[in-house]
Structure formats: structure tokens, C-alpha cells
Amino acid sequence: MVTSGRWVSLLASWRAYVAVPLPARMWTALMVALATGIPVLLSEGSPSARDLGLTGMLIGLAGLSAELGRRAEGGSLILRQRPHKALSAWPFAAAFVLPPILLVPVVIAAYGWTRARGIQVPLWKWVGSGAILVLAGCAVSVLPGGTSPGRVAAGAAVFLLTEALLLAGCALLNDAQDEAWLRGQLRSPAFYVTELSVLASGAVVLLLWLSSPAFMLLAVPLLVALQRSVLVETLRTEAETDGKTGLLHLAAWRVLVERELGRDRPVAVLLADLDHFKVINDTLGHLVGDEVLGTVSARLVEGLRGRDVAGRFGGEEFCVFLPDTDAVQALHVAERLRLAVGGLPVCGAVVRLSVGVATGRGVSVDELLGTADRALYTAKRAGRDRCVVESVPVSVPAPRDGSALPDVRDPGHAMQREGPVLGAQVVPGGDEASADAARLHHA
Description:
Layout: H1 4-18, H2 22-42, H3 49-72, H4 89-97, H5 103-116, H6 123-141, H7 149-173, H8 180-187, H9 189-211, H10 219-240, E1 248-249, H11 250-260, E2 266-274, H12 277-284, H13 286-302, E3 309-314, E4 317-322, H14 327-341, E5 344-346, E6 349-351, E7 353-361, H15 365-381, E8 386-391, E9 414-418, E10 439-440
Parallel strand pairs: 1-3, 7-8
Antiparallel strand pairs: 2-4, 2-7, 3-4, 5-6, 8-9, 9-10
Helix pairs in contact: 2-6, 2-7, 3-4, 3-5, 3-10, 4-5, 4-6, 4-9, 5-6, 6-7, 7-8, 7-9, 9-10, 12-13
């Protein structure tokens, strides 16, 4: 019997799905329809008693794996999105020995149990994810060769490729901010290494069962090790990522930037600050402030190029590293980000952005941050909602530590672009305007 509380939850899930962009809804619905129909088309005859026994075994292992995952995470499933709980191991194993139609109950049982035990990914995403695993398992099931090593290796490649392509469709068709986590996972090599390890573990467990059911005692420590390995990568990612914005913490950002600075090429660093953010917190509340930070960070990521690296500097400040970028290119990127964020309404707050840009060649992270920090102060003093570019001098003071504001540099070193909302010079061409439209300000 469905309780009133369950109906309310299902209604909320339906409303969340309807609010998703139409292309993403259609993609999810298509995957669910294919995951329902393709297994039926590929299956011949009725499942045997042996098939049903193997299905029950795989469902039991999926439940055991989920419980071991709960233990590894301290007794309960984390409520946020995280990499899989090794759920893909079981449809992968099923694809070698079961009729494709039995992939469906294996996935439904694995996903249903995991959700019942605490994970709270949006229902439509959870259903779509399960459909992807069914389709990936169907792709493996058509490969010839039984459980030979060659088929297992080819099956792992086919499963992972199918899974990645279908997930990429979800990530690209849905709202970028909503899929920031998934997009990050698909860009990370660690995700694919972990997934291959999960698939290999599922195959090993299956081979143990086929050799002798008594060998299944060996599967328990294997599953424990698998869940812990998945958790290690998750914790590493969370330690490097800011929870409110999804961007890198400053320490992790510095590590990535320092790796790029060994080459003798022009680079730039942007230091962006939300104007009057304290007023938003004081008048609308800190929850709205957190929403603003999340929305702005998503806009910043959307406006960056492939190799650019964004991080949270602290508070309402963001730092961005631009490799192989000169002053003119850096100003174009900074202006594009300022325009993308400027005037953005979030929960009743109107957001503006000031950006300080530092450029140089053969310089250190501290020199870039120090110069960007001073350029940001110049933008703030000049009226906010603008971009200022400075090149790294021979010697730069360390970034501000709460002391008095540093002096603006000599004439000709700072290049400033103002926003039209301030009544200042209007930059023709918007965010693609030539740097020649920027004014040179003299101290």
C-alpha cells in the first residue's frame, strides 16, 4: 500500500522531472523505453531455473555490496551524489550468463535496495542511471565467446563506452549547473579507472561462482576492498572540492597551477569578487548567499575554455588560471565572465562582478595572485563591476592579509574595462569586443 507520504514524495519527484529541460527529459525517457524493450527483443524463450538462480545470486551480491558500502561510509549512504556504489558490477556480470531480459530485475533490485537504504539522488536521474546500465549490459550480451578472457576484456570496453556515451548525453542535454558533478566525473580519468576496476570485480565474482559456489566466501573480502577503493577516490575529490560552489579549494587549485608554470609561456590569473556580497547576506540571508555562490560558480565554469582552471579563493572571491594566455586574451575572458554574471538575478539578488587580471611569463603563483589582487583593488576603487589587467612586475607584495590597501601602480600598467551599467564607457561588441576599446587609466 502506498502511503500519503509516499505519494507526496512521488509527486515531488515528478515535478522535479518536469522542471528539467525538455531535451534531457526526452533523452531519459528514450533510455528507459529502450531499456524496457531491447532486453525483450534480445531474449529467446523463457528463463531456466538455473538462470533464475543466478539472478537471485547477483541480486544478493548487489545488496551485500551496498551494505558493505554503508559500512565503509560510516553506517549510512551519503545523501549527495557520489560515484557509483559498484552497482555496475552486477549487470556486467549478468550480461555473460543470463538472458538480457533478466538484466532488468538485477538492476531494479540493486538500485531499489540502494535507494531504500538512504541514497537520495533525484528519482529521475536514478531511473535513468539504471536504464543506462541495462543498455550497457545488453551491448555486452551480444558479444560472442561465453566467459572467455577475450570476451570479458572486450565486454568491459563495450560496457564502459556505452555507459560513458549515454551519461554524456544526460550531462550535455541537462542544465550545466545541475550536471556539474557528472560532467566533472566524465572528464576525470579516475572515474574510468575506478569503473573498470568495478567491472573486473564483477567478472571475478561471477567466475568464482561458476567454479564453485563455495568460493563465494572469497568474494566478501573482494567486495570490501572494492567499496573502500571507490570511497578513497570519492574522499579525495571531496577534500579538493568546495562544497558550496563545486570548485577546487585554493590549495588544490595552487597545485594544478604550479604544474603549468614550469613552461616558458604567457599565463594569466583572474581574481573575481562579487560586489556588495555582504549586503546580499545581511538582507536576504546566508542561504540566499550560498545560492548566489553556486549559481555564479556555474556561470564562471560555463564561460571558461577547456584548459582553464577555476577555484574558490575564499568568501565571495574566485580564482581562475588561464594557460597560454596574453593580456588581450585574458581581458576578453575576464570580460566574458563579468558579463555572464553581471545582472544575474538569483533569489531576488542582483549580482555584479569585479575582476582583477594578472599576466606574466616565468612567474610564480604568488606573484600572479599578488598582482591580480592589486588589479582587483583598482577595479573596486574605480567603481566596481569592471575588469582591470596588470602585468606582473619584477617584485610584487604578497596577497593582502588584512592590512592597508596597496597603492595603485605607475601609469600605463593597468588596463581597465568598465561595465555599461555604471554609466561609464560602453564597450562595443559585448564580451568579444577588442581590447582596443579598453581605456588606460592613470593613477
